[in-house]
Amino acid sequence: MARGMKSIKKRIYLMGAGLLVLLIILILGIDLIWQHIESGPVIQLPTVKIRKTFQMITERELPKKADGLCAFLEGGRDKAMFIGFETDPEGIAYIIETFGGPPVESRIINADFLKILKESQYSEFPIVSLWEDKLGAHIFDMKSIESAHILEYPVGRVTTLGYKILIDDEQNNVYMFVYSR
Asked: Could you tell me which of 92, 104, 115, 124 has the fewest CB atoms within 10 Å of its CB?
């Protein structure tokens, strides 16, 4: 009889472990579905919609001169947008004034560090690489940058807007990843 009880206990433990594994799989599946619902599709925006969409997300304007505007937009409950464009020194000053200053983190990337980044296939915007592959369009090329600085402001407890801006000092190209939550 004792042997039969051990067998029953073993089956109960195995069933409990199986149910636990099934519950974990179910929770992970629901989380993946929820993430898909939240993020929404990624599209390449038509040039005529970029400025208005940028203003809607950030409540700020792009510089007057923004040649070659190109952007991706991820919709859903949370919005994310990646923009690339070329501007002039006045446009660079506008970006720094509008998006810089405390508490924004600012850092300079020198040529030596850029060389290491390029060799490692590092991207300042990893999600953008996925979007570029998905859409078959390319905006950002780390290999073309020789000197740059970055402004970064993550979403916080109080703020709902975050951004990371890379300014190519040599070519006056600006790459902006902005997101709201």
From this structure: 115
